[in-house]
Amino acid sequence: MLNFLDIYERTLQGPIMPEQDFDMKVLMPTLKQVTKQYGIQYDKDNPVPSSDADADNLFHAAVDFLSRCGIYCQNTNRVMQFSQAEILQAVKETSGCCRAGEGDDARVFRMRKPDDPKSPWLHVGSGIVCTTEEMFTNLVEAYGSIAQANSISISALDTLRGIPVMAGSPVEIYAAIRGIKIGREALRRAGRPGLPIMNLISTSASAVTTIAASAAQFGLRPSDGWLVGAISEMKIDFGAMNKIAYLLNWGANVGAETSPILGGYAGGPASTAVVSTAYILMGLLVHQGKYQLTFPIHFRYGCSSPRDVLWVVAASCQAASRNIPMPVIWLGYMAAGPCTPMYFYEAAAYLLAATTSGAPSVQTPHPAKAVKVDGITPMEARFGVALGTAAAQVKRQQANELVKQLLAKYEHQIETAPTGSRYQECFDAPTGKPNAEYVRLYEQVTNELAQMGIPLEEVI
Amino acid sequence: MDKQQLLEKLAQAIVDTDPDLARAVAKEAIASGISPLEAVEQGLSKGMSTIGDLFGRGEVFLPELLLSANAFNAAMEVLKPELEARKQQTAQTATVVLGTVQGDLHSIGKNIVATLLETSGFRIVDLGVDRSPLDFVQEAAKAHADVIALSCLMTTTMPSQKAVIDVLKEMKVRDKYLVVVGGAPTSQKWADEIGADGYGQSAVDAVALVKRLVSRKK
């Protein structure tokens, strides 16, 4: 398998071209050709497909696509190229597991297959921005208090001493370090000091902040997880590669972060499924990732709950979980916000599609497209864990029918989705407890979902 | 083929994302006596408008939009010298300086807005991504811009949009430009809060917004 210096050398060796030429003359035509050649087709009537042969065909299309398209390096303006043999060698030689956490909270994050009754790795929380440290602490403590949680994401602070946290600025470093300290302290309060934080460093966009805030005295450990982003679509830059170089030298868990955009350069659902699968290969080969976090979203709606995105998630998740030994966290962005029935319908559809398709891990679906400040509460995390666990008892064909019923409840509202409540509006900050309205809504919706046939009774 | 049929064929070449056909029909239009300005406004722009509407409704995706723009530009290679020779100008001549603000590397939304504005006749100066407030101010002055368009995709880079407006005020040139903002975490409320002139929820909205603001200013 190529090592990271081999990968770096490819950024110096491939064909040189302007970024726009890569988009127009390499990425888009290659994707169109491969999608057609392999006969990949979107089936709007079946948002959760269940053909293993189709999943394997999508995997082969993704290998072919990655080998023909390559990855564009924005710093050298060259296309990094990989042969099919190199890609398949990386697939063959990867362990397919990620060791995360410390002490009693140490676990091995492993693969799952489609229709696998084993519960997925339950990744809880989000990097959604918080305005107060009190809320940040409450959220993390609540995540840590969910017994089934295997790992968490911590929030980002929007200001520090009233100064806006601007990406790439010195205050970003202060905010990142502060966030880690609060997160660790809150996990201690929850009695889970060893629980891995796997969205490091959530306030960070720059490599210098990642490296600075990772110094051991601030509380991080190689057994946590660091996210390093690719650039949509099929691109990377030295900022990301510098983070990887540092993290690999330290022996830390590198998490490849990818976001295929349906309707963007990836085109429609069929070709986006090819890109989505190719990204898992990229995470393995280019990021040298121990795990991956991926979140397909819709270009127009900015969320993952539309029917065509659910199909992309299910199809590419099946292709990857059957063929690529990479523990992937599948994350969805919901259109509706906290304390709305629509959020729960969307989240249930997403979690059913991903879990039954063999997602090794599912994360708390992010409310209100993750852009509402203070727009997350522990209730969504609790729901994600319950639904993720219950969905493992469902098979793909049943999930397909359930997802269609759920789509009928929210599909027409995606464009005008309610953004819901802020944490302060549906939780009592000093005690960290939900208000009566939210408790009532949660019970009402989970009962409704149980009556639809989702086996929630045993996990709530 | 009569004039109307040729203009429709030109529009269809754009919708069909066919640069060779667009170039050939543009030549045919000029040879048959159609004015280059009419060919642009009643042919090419109509085609772009159709594809822009389809894109806005989610019926086609970014690749089709960009390939249509490519066909548009191919036809313009034929029509532009003719426009210049006859000293004709397209209706929209405003200049838009646009880019993604400091700390933010996201480019797709910004690129789509640039493509749609350019094919609507605006002159575009695309500054790329991660550009400082002063870059926007200096480039806008250099380009004699009418509009500064600021994109961001992260909540942590929203303050950089405000910073551009603050620097414009500090340098006492805020009134020289229309400033519009966009990107997933932004909203009309945010635009009002930071003193922007407008907010575009989508790329198609952004084009309508810029057209509206520019025509109101004139």
- The percent range for strand residues of chain B is 5-15%
Helix proportion range of chain A: 40-55%
Poorly predicted runs of chain B: none
Radius of gyration of chain B: 18 Å
User: Pair with the most extensive interface?
Assistant: A-B, 35 and 23 residues
Low-confidence stretches of chain A: none
Q: How many distinct helices of chain A?
A: 15
**Assembly form of the protein:** heterodimer
Give the overall silhouette of chain A.
globular
Number of strands of chain B: 5
Largest sheet of chain A: 7 strands, parallel
Structural class by secondary-structure content of chain B:
alpha/beta
Describe it:
- The complex is a heterodimer of chains A (460) and B (218).
- Chain A is an alpha/beta fold and 460 residues long.
- Chain A is 45% helix and 13% strand.
- Chain A has a 7-stranded parallel sheet. Chain A has a 3-stranded mixed sheet with strand order 2-1-12.
- In chain A, a hairpin with a 4-residue loop joins strand 1 (71-73) and strand 2 (78-80).
- Chain A is globular and about 60 Å long.
- In chain B, 58% of the residues lie in helices and 11% in strands.
- Chain B has 9 helices and 5 strands.
- A 5-stranded parallel sheet of chain B has the order 2-1-3-4-5, sandwiched between helices.
- In chain B, helix 1 packs antiparallel against helix 2 (19-31) and helix 1 (3-15) crosses helix 3.
- The longest helix of chain B is centred in the middle third of the chain and has 24 residues, at 62-85.
- The radius of gyration of chain B is 18 Å and the shape is elongated.
- Chain B starts with a helix and ends with a helix.
- In chain B, 51% of the residues are buried.
- The model of chain B has no long low-confidence stretch (mean pLDDT 91).
